[in-house]
Amino acid sequence: MADLNLRGYLDRFPEVCERKFGRRFDFAKIEKEFEQVRTGGSRLMARDVAKIFDKDRTPFGRYWPLPDAKALEKQLTRQHVFLSPIVGDGHDLVEQLLQVFHNLGVASLVLRMAHPDQFGVFSTPIVHLLQINRARTVDLYLAFCEELHSWQEHFGLPSVAQTEMALWTYHELTALPLHGAEVEKSRREFDNDVWIQRRRLEQVVTPFLENYGPVELARILCERYPRLAAMLAGVEFERLLRLRWRGLRSRDKGKQKVSADDMINDLAEHSVVHRREARGLASVWDVRNKAVHPDATLSREEVEKMISCIESICFDWEV
After folding, report:
1. Do 98 and 142 touch, CB atoms closer than 8 A?
2. Would the pLDDT of 1 be above 60?
3. Residue 16 and residue 103 share a domain
4. N or C: where does the chain have the smaller number of CB atoms within 10 Å of the terminal CB?
């Protein structure tokens, strides 16, 4: 199965614009007109923003309202905005533009025209494709652009802005509930591109991995995916069990490979755990074994009991 050719969608951007809006657009001309603003030679002015909303030059007025020119100029006269130099990742600049426009989409349009190498147009469909999620607005946009940069590098595209254009084109060609051969081929290429799905999964999973331990994740997964939860909890249980047993047998260097049952019995014999707790740990190991054998029946209740046993007995072993 072929991977997605994202560059090919960038090439089709003019065609899709003509089909959707009745004309083609040349954003490069507007980027060139932003040269003085880009380099810090002049501050941002209302007439600069008006260029972005010129219906003969861009389609953006269909999605975002043009700020009132007089009110915007008054605010930009009172609060000067310079788009260069960009300090760090641009957090302060994005924050400043949000204070002026009160709209992330409009702020992103200004940044996209001024610094296409670093910023793209923020839109919900592309956020969904990338699977970006952050609690704060500025962090969301910066993560969005950072991820676009990763896609730019992987697919060999000219800029962050043009990467967003390519993804927008893909979305437009595949979002409608059509089932033509070309549409289905595009969707399959996106869905089956391992690099793309790794990036998307990383965006979704990383916050959970950073905030929850293995057993906590197992409890979260348990209701919907009990077997996966049991596998995850089982790996952590074995790690904790071996850690505690090795602490007990720190002088015994000869025995390296010991079964889980033997370790549990050893802990019970040395009163590290009570016999009742040892039976619970043995049950945990049984559930772990069921999880890794697909022909074994495994209930959600068994997994929940397994997780509770690990939490109540094993968590102190880490200390």
Report:
1. no
2. no
3. yes
4. C
pLDDT, position 292: 94
Residue with tokens 């409890």: 219
Residue labelled with tokens 């904790």: 240
pLDDT tens, 13-65? Answer: 999 999 999 999 999 999 999 999 999 889 999 999 999 999 999 999 999 99
Amino acid at 158: P
By residue range, what is the domain housing residue 272?
214-318
Backbone angles phi, psi at 274, to 5 degrees: -75, 160
Which pair of structure tokens corresponds to residue 296?
A: 């074994």
User: Do 224 and 181 share a structural domain?
Assistant: no
Amino acid of residue 295: D
Identify the pLDDT of residue 251: 63
Is residue 296 within 8 Å of 242, Cβ to Cβ?
A: no
**DSSP structural state of residue 315:** G
Cβ–Cβ < 8 Å for 236, 164: no
> What domain count does the chain have?
2
Phi, psi of 133 (to 5 degrees): -150, 120
Boundary-marking domain end, from 150, 180, 207? 207
For the purposes of burial, counting CB atoms within 10 Å of the CB of 126, is it exposed (0-12), middle (13-18) or buried (19 or more)?
A: buried
Structure token pair of residue 143? 């993560």
243 and 301 co-located in one domain:
yes
pLDDT in tens, 162-187: 999 999 999 999 987 666 888 999 99
Give the pLDDT confidence score for residue 63 in this predicted structure: 96
- Residue 303 near residue 229, CB atoms below 8 Å: yes
1 located within any domain: no
Q: Do residues 191 and 296 both lie within one domain?
A: no
Q: State if pTM tops 0.85.
A: yes
pLDDT tens profile 85-99: 999 999 999 999 999
CATH number at residue 235: 1.20.120
Give the residue from 301, 308, 302 showing the smallest Cα distance to 287: 302
Which pLDDT score, from 0 to 100, does residue 179 have? 67
Between CA 310 and CA 319 the distance in angstroms is 15
